[in-house]
Every structure is written in C-alpha cells, then in structure tokens.
Amino acid sequence: MEVVVLGSGSPLPDPDRAGPSTLVRTGAGDLLFDCGRGVLMRAAAARSGAGAFVALFLTHLHSDHLTDLNDIVTMRWATSFAPSPLRLFGPTGTGRVVQAVGEMLEADIGYRLSHHADLGWRPVTEVTEIGGPTVLELNGIRVTAAFTDHAPVRPTLGFRIDDGGRSVVIAGDTVPCSGLDGLCADADVLVHTAVRRDLIEGIGLPRLTDVLDYHSSVEDAAETAERNRVGTLLLTHLVPAPEPGTDDEWAGLATARFGGRVIVANDLTTVTIDG
Ligand SMILES: [Zn+2]
Ligand SMILES: [Zn+2]
Questions:
Q1: CA 47 to chain CA centroid, nearest Å
Q2: In which domain, by residue range, is 101 found?
Q3: What pLDDT is recorded for position 274?
Q4: Residue 57's pLDDT band (boundaries 50, 70, 90)?
Q5: Residues of the chain by 3-state class (helix, strand, coil), percent to 5
C-alpha cells in the first residue's frame, strides 16, 4: 500500500502546496480522500487521475476539502469511453453538494454532449452518505468510517483503510477524539492535519486564531499517534504553511510526544508500506 499526499496546503492559495487531498494506492486501486485545490494536477504528477479513482471519500464539507470536486466529475466523464460512475462516500449533506455541482456543470454537460457524437452519456456520481460508524468492503479491502470532532462542523468523518494486513488512517480535520482513536489502533500510517498553535497565537489574527478551536495541533496529533501505537505520523494540511527549512522544527514538536516515525508532508510526499 502507498500513501501519496496530493495536497499538503492550508485553505490559503500557496504556490507550492495544493489544497488538502490524499491518495491511497491499494490492491483494489486508487482511493482518493478529499479533493482540494489542484488535486488533479497533483494526481497527474502521481500518474493517477479522475478516471483511475475507485472511489472518492470526503471527510467533511468544508470548501477547502472539495473545491475541485467539479473538476473530478467533469474529467472522469469527458475523458471516458463508456459510462463510468464515480463512487463518492461522504458525510450527511454530500448528496446536496453533488447535486449542486451537477447543476453548476449543466451548461458544460450540454455543450459537450451536443459536440461529441461518441459521448452519449452524462456524468453520474453514486453518492453514499455515511450517517454513522460504517465498514465498507471495496474490491477486497476494508474501509472503516467513524465520526470525528471538528465542531461546529458536523458531521465529520475519519477513515481507516485495511489492505492485506496493512492499514492507513485519514484523520481529516479534527481535535483528538474517541472516534479517531478507534480508527487509529496499531495503524501503520496516520495521515493527520495539523496546525502550529505557537505560530498562530504569535500572529494574533482573530480569523486565524479561530482555527485553533477545531484542529489538532502538531502536539495533539503526536499524542493521538502515540496513544494508539501508530507506526508513522504523516502531518499534512499544515497551518500556517511551514517556512522553508523549518520541517525539522515541526517534526521536533511531534517527536517529543511520539516515539514512531514523523514525516512533515510536502505535495507528493509518498509513504510506502511494505507487505
Ligand atoms: Zn475543516
Ligand atoms: Zn481543512
């Protein structure tokens, strides 16, 4: 199994970091978790793409985690040679978002259907809203979903992927919580969003300080990893964006509380799990 961080950035546009998105390559194919700004550019760099995704999972409906959903819907459809529904799993409310994206694309869909004689089908997105703890079987791998805590954003989901005895957890945006702990037990890799409390408090902007309410700090993420015997902690969706040369400083805050391996993600950081 392989984890590729497609976008490691914050909600703010950044020349070097795309919006939050993680690709998990499994024996059953490519699973995509969230689809922030620039996701398909980074997927192309990883030799994947809209047509390759076995399924897309949304951790929550914050805009920075789904800005490019329309791009995935369009590219999967417009480059297809047969109907190829996109399987999408997300929290309650996902169906409404997908419907609205479809309405937004309606003119474009009409243009392409009338222009391309060999394109005789519309884009189809098969949405499954996850309303509680859930275990899915997907082509021989298991995906487990549980509620996380990103209040006042509700509901929010974390995911665990089990494939051939190896496991990856996608925390999404959350503070430490029992739902996430349950997913993380003995996981090989925990992909966790993280903010730097010390830096954000130093900046002192209320709009930025607010994010501390509902995100894990680097230290929080490290403690979640330690408490649940995780192998590798992969920190992503970094706020504020790390200054060049400060990765060791970020990692040091985590290694002070976690005995496993810590990786501070850039876009396309890849972690391969043997076995
Ligand atoms: Zn969020
Ligand atoms: Zn976010």
A1: 18
A2: 2-272
A3: 87
A4: very high
A5: 30, 30, 40
Q: How far is the CA of 265 from the centre of ligand 1 (A)?
A: 18
Residue with tokens 């082509």: 139
Active site residue 274: no
What three-state secondary structure class fits 108?
Answer: helix
Query: In the structure encoding, which two tokens stand for residue 84, read together?
Result: 């190829």
Q: Is the pLDDT of residue 65 over 80?
A: yes
Cβ contacts of 52 within 8 Å, gap of 6 or more: 29, 30, 43
Percent of the chain whose pLDDT exceeds 70: 100
Under a CB-based contact definition with an 8 Å cutoff, are residues 224 and 181 in contact?
A: yes
Q: What is the pLDDT of residues 218-229, one digit of tens each?
A: 999 999 999 999
102 neighbors 125 (Cβ within 8 angstroms): yes
Q: Is pLDDT above 80 for 64? A: yes
DSSP line for 33-65? E---TTHHHHHHHTT--GGGEEEEE-S---GGG
Distance 236 CA to ligand 2 centre (A): 10
Section 91-99 average pLDDT: 98
Mean per-residue pLDDT for 209-235?
A: 96
Predicted pLDDT at 247: 96
Task: Point out the catalytic residue in the list 34, 64, 163, 188.
Answer: 64
Say how many domains are in the chain.
1
Which CATH number do you get for residue 215? Answer: 3.60.15.10
Residue whose pair of structure tokens reads 């995509």 in the numeric block: 32
Both tokens assigned to 54: 């076995």
Q: How far is the CA of 91 from the centre of ligand 1 (A)?
A: 13
Cβ-contact 181, 133 below 8 angstroms: no
Instruction: Report helix, strand or coil for 104.
Output: helix
Q: Is the pLDDT of residue 275 over 80?
A: no
* Residue 39 Cα to ligand 1 middle (Å): 17
